[in-house]
Amino acid sequence: MAQILPSIFGADIMHLQDDINFLEEENTQILHVDLMDGNFVSNIAFGPNQIAEMKKNSTMIFDVHMMVKHPKDHIDDVLATGAEMISVHYESTPHIHSILQKIRQAGRKAGVVINPGTSEVVLEYLLNDIDYILIMTINPGQPGQSFIPKSLEKIRNTKQLIGDRKIDIEVDGGVNIEIAEKCVKAGAELIVVGGALFSGDKQAQYQLLKEAVK
What we know:
alpha/beta
C-alpha cells in the first residue's frame, strides 16, 4: 500500500505544532519537510535548526527534501537533525554520489530528486546507492503550481528502471486526491501532499487521500 506524506510546508505556519499533533493523532508515519535556500529555488524554508526542533517534538519519520545549491555544505547539519530520510537534487551538485554515500553511511535512507526537465535515465548509475527516488511533478520551490501530466510517464519509466531493486518512488508537487490515485497506479509508493491536505477540512481530506492510495 502506498503512503501519504504530508508536507509541513503546506501547513499553517502560525499553528505548526497543532498540525504536527493532528498528524500524530492520524498515525502519520512519515512527514515531508522542505529545506529551501533561496538560491537553488527562490523560496526559503525550514533550516536545520527548525527541522531539529520539530523532530524533537514528533515521533514521525522525517523525510527532508534538500532544495539547496551546495548540498555538501549543509549535509552535516541536516544529518544532525535526526532526520531518517534525506533526499538531494541530482541537479544541485556534480558530487551526488558521494553525498548519497554519506547519508547511507550515517544510517539514514538516501534519496535522489529529479526535476521535471531531468530524464530518469540519469539515475541508472545511482540505483545501487539509493533507497528512494523523488520525482518532482512541478518545478520545485513554489507552491500552487499544477501537476505536470507527463510525470505519470516518468513514474512508469522509473519503475521499469528500478526493476526488482528495493527502491521506492516518491512524488511531490500539485498532488490532489485524483492525482494521488493516478500516481499510485503508475507505480509511486510515497505521495507528498501539501495544500490539498491542509486547505479546508484537513481531517476529511486526509481520509479521502488515504483511501485514494490504498
